[in-house]
Amino acid sequence: MVDRLPTGVEGLDRIIQGGFPRGTVNLVSGPAGSGKTLLGLHFVYTGAALYGQNVVYLSLEESRNGLDKVLEAYGMETAALESNGKFTLLDLGELRLGVKTTEYMLGFRELQDFLRTSMSKNRVDRLVVDSLSAAGLHYTSRKQLREELFSFGRFLRERYMTSLLISESIEGLGLTRWGFEQFVADSFIHLGLEEIKGELRRTLTIRKMRLTRHDTVKHPMRIAQGGMVVEADERVV
Question: Phi, psi (5° rounding) for residue 25?
């Protein structure tokens, strides 16, 4: 039986046999406003709050203050979890490994070095990187970007941490920013914002997930008082 880590998203775990397989690299992609960051926060908060796991959320774009507001809005209390070292949220866009600057310079090799140092102190069970698109700004060569992203994926698997990598998509230009992020990952969840009968609706589709019997249905998804909810018994047609 495959050991799984529940995401904590209502409805999502039902359609992926209970959660992400432990030790896998998982990708979520979608346009602005589709719920990517909220999914990532659900994943790490669930691990720390319900399972006592050590979790890390690395933000490369969103400010710490902005993420704290999201956590508070959906009732995810993290103060006690942070004080006992279970929940770590880092705004690397500001910190840049300890140097404040407005210029972003972290690539995947720097992220890997940072995680290696962090993991020498404490095991990391769940990791979110938000987002790959920001790290990609470090590169001028598409070839180097692809090579270092794949190397980063191998690093995460070797450490047997369960990771969720966030990538943005640009509407009308493909499912991911660069078109190859999904090949790094063991699973790929795509979040959509679609106009249906004159109204924008959020959707969720499991494009792939290794070691998992999952459907390929496009499900409606909504943001409720308690956070993200996937309508597992409904489909968007």
Answer: -100, 125
